[in-house]
Amino acid sequence: MAFIKLYRKKLQENYAFLDNIFSSRNIDWGVVTKLLCGNTIYIQEIIALGVTEMHDSRVSNLKKIKKLNPNIQTVYIKPPAKRSIERIVRYADVSFNTEKYTIQLLSEEAQRQNKIHKIIIMIEMGDLREGVMGEELVQFYGDILKLPNIEIRGIGTNLNCLSGVMPTQDKLIQLSLYKQLIEAKFDISIPWVSGGTSVAVPLILKNARPMAVNHFRIGEALFFGKDLFTGQTMEGMHSDVFKLFAEIIEITEKPDTPTGELGENVAGHAFTVADDVDFSSTSLRAILDIGLLDMQPQYLQADDEKITIVDASSDMLVIDISNSDTNYKIGDLVSFKIQYMGALYLLNSDYVEKTIE
């Protein structure tokens, strides 16, 4: 059985690195746990770091967090679906919102549960995912202020998640100006200006963040240490908090080119044979006990740099070990570095064991 391993010490060091960045600048932040797909043993590892705020896009995961530690502030990080309102008010202390009708439903449900439900009003700033249009924000904010059992915790934006728009200094200044506009209009103070996700960390390190932007939601940087502007690992952080291990179940010297009438494979891909192909060419191939049901090969990189990933079917991954200096045998484990999207697939699979180093 293939398994994914979390390295506790590397996670702790990444967390300490980020917490120092934020605390030294008086910035509030929460850990985005949606990558963990509700896995209890991994959620417990996050709680053990001393986290006080956790964000997720699945209510069932927030329910698990509340069960493990009721004192953690839980944040639902997408506009609520109508059918989820009761559970969101029950298990999320805060939710991101963009629709007056939905916030009205949250208000009614919060009254039924005798709770104050906090919301962040998300603003559209160019990435074209969720968000209230800027020209409608003041009217929107004023209407929501009137609703009982709703506390507007702040405003925020989401960038780089759909269209790839980056959270530049100009974008965050614009977000700060919305705060000033609303505070002047309604004579109030907005506690949070939530400036985005891991992609904004490089701006903070460069001290290019407007001071009014005082809250961030961090997931990928914690688990992968990645600078999303450059694609490189941030100095002082680990990129391999998670690793995948898969077992070799076959090793055979095989032709490099398939023979027979060719059609689409199970993934809908068609193999084409060049006119000048050398049908006598072979390679030493190994098959691993993991497949497309659990992962996507484009998000994996073997720790053995001389291994090449060939392709995958639903339950098996084929690799080329011809050039490796390691004498692999049946039953050996092959380890892989994982990208963020690759980890999402793996952690969402019930067929991949989750372990801790």
TrEMBL record:
UniProt-recorded Gene Ontology molecular function terms: alanine racemase activity; pyridoxal phosphate binding
Q: Which UniProt keywords apply?
A: Isomerase, Pyridoxal phosphate
Q: Which cofactor does it need?
A: pyridoxal 5'-phosphate
Q: Which domain of life is it from?
A: Bacteria
One family from Pfam that matches here is: Ala_racemase_N
Can you quote a single GO CC term?
Answer: cytosol
Specify the Alanine racemase N-terminal domain's residue ranges: 10-225
Q: What is this protein called?
A: Amino-acid racemase
Identify the species of origin.
Flavobacterium faecale
